[in-house]
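Hi support team,

I'm filing this because I wasn't sure whether my run with zinc ion finished correctly. The job status page said complete, but I'd like someone to confirm that the output block is well-formed before I use it downstream. Pasting the exact inputs I used:
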Amino acid sequence: MRPNTMKALEKSRPEEGLWMVQAPVPEIGPDEVLIRVKKTGICGTDIHIWNWDEWASHTVPVPMITGHEFAGEIVELGRNVTGLKIGQRCSGEGHLIGTDSRQSRAGKFHLDPGTRGIGVNEQGAFAQYLKLPAFNVVPLPDDIPDEIGAILDPLGNAVHTALSFDLLGEDVLITGAGPIGIMAAAVARHAGARHVVITDINPDRLALAQHVVPSVRAVNVAKEELQSVISDLGMSQGFDVGLEMSGSQAALDQMVEALVMGGKIALLGIPPGKSPVDWSRIVFKAITIKGVYGREMFETWYKMIAMLQNGLDVSRVITHRFAADDFAQGFAAMKSGKSGKVVLDWA
Ligand code: ZN
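And here is everything the job wrote out:
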């Protein structure tokens, strides 16, 4: 029944690229499950690992099976595992946590300082089989298809960021129209925001944002001033909440300017290094800033699945689908800057 080897997309050598290899099927421990992977999503993180940039070369040991966005089916259960069944469709949290830290013992698992990531620090999901602690498994309801299951990790980033602050009736500015920014726009609408504006300087991404969430206003800040959008939409002062998804210093500056007194900002975008911030502006505007990392275990997962079952539709953010063997085309689509989510099929 259980094969000895599997196809896996691996960083085999410390240089640019990824290679499809035959790897051993993982052996599971008593508290783990083995998942047969069906679909995976390519993340920006995987592009860094492909490119073998400074972050990747300092972070990722080789050889390493990459990938952390997945959906699949449980095919083996460790002997201590209860509450899960063979054949259960699932996705899962790719952050592996310990249980000894103060944060974990307080139930704030997403703040555990010892967090390790699959596909980054531990063997990942771009493979026919993945081992995962049973604790990290998130069962998929029948009405959520595998390809949506494969993008729950980045949707979770979007949900965690968007739900950082109360959005009901608020005017929301999202800077950065990558897939996570676009999904955050959909979540903000679903959560009852009044006006949702998403900015970028890449026309393809803005067009995709408008396609995925027709009710948002996509603004090219290379061509249009946010102040004119604010008066156009009839806001008296500016945006109540900002979701920064780009890591761009210019975007953060624009966001601070476009926010109301006492506005709130959730930061998910990662600046390339240290970047100058006009802190006096933030102080005098009495702005609250929150850094966001990963997803809340497992409240974000609960909320996003509930929203997907209650009409949240992010399916159009998936723009490319390839067989796993054609992974190079998938990575090329990602690197073009024109794609939304790219999904690989391992079944
Ligand atoms: Zn990801």
